[in-house]
Write a structure and sequence with these properties.
3 copies of one chain form a homotrimer. With 154 residues, the first copy, chain A, is α/β, with parallel strands linked by helices. In chain A, strands 4-3-2-1-5 form a 5-stranded parallel sheet, with helices on both faces. In chain A, helix 1 links the parallel strand 1 and strand 2. Chain A starts with a strand and ends with a strand. Chains in contact: A-B, A-C, B-C. At the A-C interface, helix 1 and strand 5 of A face helix 5, helix 6 and strand 5 of C.
Amino acid sequence: MDKKLGIIATKGTLDWAYPPFILASTAAALGYEVRMFCTFYGLELLKKKLDLKVTSVGNPGMPMPMPMPVMLQALPGMQGMMTVMMKKRMKGKGVASIEELRSLCIEADVKLLACQMTVDLFDMPREAFIDGLDYVGAASFLEFAGESDVCLFI
Amino acid sequence: MDKKLGIIATKGTLDWAYPPFILASTAAALGYEVRMFCTFYGLELLKKKLDLKVTSVGNPGMPMPMPMPVMLQALPGMQGMMTVMMKKRMKGKGVASIEELRSLCIEADVKLLACQMTVDLFDMPREAFIDGLDYVGAASFLEFAGESDVCLFI
Amino acid sequence: MDKKLGIIATKGTLDWAYPPFILASTAAALGYEVRMFCTFYGLELLKKKLDLKVTSVGNPGMPMPMPMPVMLQALPGMQGMMTVMMKKRMKGKGVASIEELRSLCIEADVKLLACQMTVDLFDMPREAFIDGLDYVGAASFLEFAGESDVCLFI
């Protein structure tokens, strides 16, 4: 029987968008049945128009093109600049964009789930999200998680 | 046999307090045996007097009532203001407070565990914590985790 | 048969370096086979010369010797000062340093894995890392994870 991977994706930044999509697409390629439950800030990953930013503040472990003191990182515009630099580096290295990885996941039958409670909490209109999502609750996802071989909270 | 959910709760902010308590209470309602090991900053979740704050700095994925540049978010008082706004929104939407979710977990027999090593490290007095906790180490929790169906590091 | 623990270590700060190494060494002591896949910022944990810092910005749950407003925490030098204070406290309490915990893990046969994709992405020279690492991809780690009893994303 196929192995199962459950992912609870809770972060909405550019850097933390990579782990869930890379793990999901890799597992799907290996024949896993994959379900990704996007909740809290992770709902950003399901938006039609992705607007994800790198966050460096509070993230001293981030290898950056040049080191910057925390104070500077909080300057207006710095976050946008770092996001641009990160995207450039990704592209230069042939790493797929989040949009591309997400499409790859969908093509590979990764099931993308949106947390209904969070959607309600922040009054997010369904039109903001990509089509084909299932809107479910934690209980519904736990049913799958309980049967999964690997379940990760990201 | 009942399914088992292990949670390692390591964050002590208002926003990150929700996932462990929501998952724990939902799983318990589904008949899971649940143990939640609170360690590092996660020990804040077990304090008698909860004083959890939302953190927006370094958290660009957070959907906020109004967008704010990183610099502004670091201003004194801003964190408190965002915490108040978040709590209001939660309440207005009928989402339970962390105190309520925690009580729900205890009533549903979720076992709350405090990490003894962290308690010692920060000289936290036991009187600061709610009653009925077990104070254990990582080895003790791993025994349960090894038998669990789902184990999440939050 | 021995139990298996898989860890995906993705954070590169002093505080978040503790959970993976403590869990890995504890599990190894209990007879677990442990593999730790270091990816993204988690690669910092495999550097020969560790230079990990505490991050307080965006981390209101952190119990600090004295409370500080967010603004102050962003001041130049403050991060370094907090790192020094944290290290002193750890040492005074007899908590092993990350270097010591890492050595302990290696002696206990914890398999440390470096994410080849991240190494390539940031042009990290192999000489910067400790010897004896395996450089692998997510697919390779997932094979182990699929057989593991516990798998954590940290």
